[in-house]
Amino acid sequence: MLKHTLILHNILMQTDKNPGNNFQIIWQYINYLDYFYFAETLGHSTDHLRTKMNKTTEAVPSYNSNDIETHRPRKNISYFHNKCWSLFSQRLISIKVFVIYVSLANIFVHSLDHYLGSQITAIEKQFNLQSKSSGILISINDVGFICSVLVLGYLLKNCHRPRVLAITNVTVGLAILICALPYFITPHPKWNTNQNNNGANRTMWTDFKSTQDPALNTSIECNLMEEESFTGSSTIGYFFIFIGMLLIGVGKAARFPLAIAYIDENVDEAHTGGYVGILNGMNCFGPVVVFCLGGYFSKQYVTLEKTSLKPSDPQWIGAWWLGFLTFGFAAILMSVPLFLFPRKLKENENVPEKKKTLSFKDMIQTFYNMAKNPLLILILGHIGLIIFSASGTLPFIPKYFETQFKWTSWKTNIVVSTTFVLMSSIGMIVGGVITSFYKMDLRKCLKFSMVLVTFDLFLVWIPIFIHCPQTELEVTDFLQRYADSPTPVTLQQDLNQLSCFQISSLKLQCNEHDYEPVCGADGRSFKSPCYAGCQYHNIKTNVCW
């Protein structure tokens, strides 16, 4: 059928040159084609019709039987490939474009731990997490990666690598969306703003249950049930983010080995290092992109509603979930082009076959031989310690600046991203120039690296002595003044000192999870307006009464 279609196509291409003659040829050929299939259906001989059809095609000067082989689809292209081939030009199926697609996808896949670090303060505030809990969320990504990278790398050694990369993109994209799910299924923080007689904005502390005290003839809000609900929401939010980050680590485990293997199979050995270097170099820009976007999302309030709060307020929570939505959909979208790449690029079919992959037994033997090489073990240990240090430092740098120097989240993320890309670029350029200028061999490079690591260790210790004085929240001293009080303080006697803790007859207490530091009239700091005994809080001056 393909042959007859190409013949008619060639006849139509010649119609403009000789319309009358070619029209007769088309009509005659169609009639012969009709008779041909009719006779073939009845089981009659079709030799005479074949002869007449061949004579008809000889009248078409542009027809060449070799064209049939030229237009025939490649056998190694799948059904899905054939459907999209007309939309996705063959010029875009190349190793250069493959490296670009994988590099762009890696920005959204391999930098999620850095984005989580840029939003860790907001997540801790919304779900009341401690630093050790948020540290587990960041590290579980690497745990999933380490536990699955060898297994997946071995099981997927003979797979269709571009499609597996696309599937991992989709898997990681869905896992990223799972991290944003807690925002939609848990309660959002709410702050009620009121106006006093002077028109100043005040925030009413509303974490108390409304209870009528006949003696005081006033309502005191003390919501004890809210703490239990808040704890449940924190557990749910922590669980979904934990599962999402674990799946992200597992999903990205197979990406780097498969991408390098695909490049190695489709490129000459002389050019493999260049493409792998481009892939690694593009990965360095991932943290910069996510920190910049994290700074923008931190300037938006978590509910995307207008509020009187400012990013500098302690109770401000940035829109941390927006980044997960953005990166999740972007990762899924970037998987579409990877589905269209073949198992082996046609332009590189002449690349010689590489050595066959190792069996599981051979892989174990290879690891054993590597373990007996002391120099290799020391180098790997050195790299492991550097990665260990960076994995614990970089995600928590934004939180360090926010807590120690009272910077806003968006400002911290912008400064960290700018410093990271600037220092990384300078380090790579200077390191390359020094090693090239002095023509360092392996031994000299190791010595040079040892000197730099020692200097880096010295610099790491400096921030330990550079910090702001620790602010003490004097909650115990405040409560001690009322420990011997036999009766609760009345609202008329001391409104500014009123607190749930002082109303012992009602057996009420402040919510220990609330963190909104305020400054009392005596200059001391309290964890929240409830601990300070305040009913109103001026968010502009951060003073309560």
Automatic annotation (TrEMBL):
> Record's Gene Ontology CC terms?
basolateral plasma membrane
Ribonucleoprotein is among the record's keywords: no
InterPro entries, alphabetically? Kazal_dom, Kazal_dom_sf, MFS_dom, MFS_trans_sf, OATP
Keyword Disulfide bond among record annotations: yes
Q: Which residues form the Kazal-like domain?
A: 504-545
TM segments?
97-116, 136-156, 163-185, 235-254, 275-297, 317-341, 375-394, 414-438, 445-466
Q: Fetch the Pfam families from UniProt.
A: Kazal_2, OATP
- Domain spans labelled Major facilitator superfamily (MFS) profile: 89-545
Annotated membrane topology is:
Multi-pass membrane protein
* Keywords (A to Z) from UniProt: Cell membrane, Disulfide bond, Membrane, Transmembrane, Transmembrane helix
- Gene Ontology MF terms: sodium-independent organic anion transmembrane transporter activity
- What Gene Ontology terms for biological process does this UniProt record contain? sodium-independent organic anion transport
Q: Which domain of life is it from?
A: Eukaryota
| Location in or out of the cell | Cell membrane
Q: Which family does it belong to?
A: Belongs to the organo anion transporter (TC 2.A.60) family.
Question: What is the name listed in the Swiss-Prot or TrEMBL entry for this protein?
Answer: Solute carrier organic anion transporter family member 74D-like isoform X5
Annotated organism of origin: Octopus sinensis
